[in-house]
Amino acid sequence: MSRPGAILRAMSASKAADPTRPPVKVVRSARRRKTVTAYREGETVVVLLPARMSRREEDHWVATMLERLERRSRRVVPGDAELERRARLLARRYLEGMVEPRSVRWVGNMRARYGSCTPDDGTIRLSDRLAPWPPWVRDYVLVHELAHLAVPDHSPAFWRLVDRYPLSERARGFLIAKGMEEDED
Fold this sequence. Notes:
alpha/beta; disordered C terminus; 2 domains; 185 residues
């Protein structure tokens, strides 16, 4: 699906095909000024570029974005046992052991939130959409949910606990940029 004014070009038409490289579709847009984005669409990698970029810049950005997508796909995603171990470590380190989760696991049915907890039984669930994101973002969401085991609301006391995690502001910014966290003041 292309937008009006976008220029499409299939890569590797003029280059020798690399059998290890996925097919690439470049989409140039006059509306895009600075940013370059890439995503997978089935087996094809779609790279979105500003229309004004030179062919050399295009080649550079296609290679860069392919490498970024490859690195992201190689990230090791922790299983439920590792996630629970990490939550216990974070509770000791940042919440001085004041909470002890009974269960921490990934779930695939969360679309509007990235985590939830049930303070009554000490269970924490994280959306599996967080799995490929940086570990410090997962740690923030774990600390957020752990803090709910002590303070079930979003009061100033709750945020004081969450802010003990040194990357909390950075992680909130990451989640806001991804469109998953509402600005809660």
